[in-house]
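Run folding on both entries below.
>entry_1
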Amino acid sequence: MKSNHEKILKSAQDLRWDIGADFHEKTMEALYTDATRITDRAVTYPDEKPRFDLDRTIDKLVTSRVWGFPLMILMQHSLMVRKLVDMKLQGTGRLNANTRYQVTLLSLGQTQ
């Protein structure tokens, strides 16, 4: 009677030959292809025009000297107004979704 270890080793050996002899080569080729794709997206070269990157653009706006503080104040104000409207809705139920929308527009300095 064969032991469990021998059965497992036999099964692994059979599966290895079922996979094919070039399994490792195909796996490494796929790995390097993915690495090349990621590198091409991440690396910029001096002679190329930089690609548009939404994260980098948002970061430049939010951290700029001109737009940084006004954007942060605007976001803080709109969040505060939104929280006040939610509190009002929970308290008396007088405000509806349309009123909430109008208050949000007013907090952003816009009118309908």
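>entry_2
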Amino acid sequence: MKELTFVPVGNFLRDWKNVGGSTNDLHRLYADIERLGIQAKPLFGNLRVVRGRIGKRGKRGGVRVAYFYFIEGVTVFLFALYDRRKTKGFTKEELVELNGICEEIRREYLK
């Protein structure tokens, strides 16, 4: 199996730090995504969602991360996250926008 490449998009890393995420937490998230891959819960269109731990908070009270597992390129694009303690989920508008970005990425990589 090829090693995955993780690409944080936009403000992902800033948002990760803002919710209290450390480098170790991010590496745990990467490991979870590598384990789940395309089998993670579908979120909308090409997006998947994974639960992440932040510090001593477990996955249930941690964050949710929307990502695009681009099989053709063996690349994972990390788009957005939210703190489960503060937000119930992504809005429909956010999901439509993120899925549009997935399609743009797919078109660019398949040129």
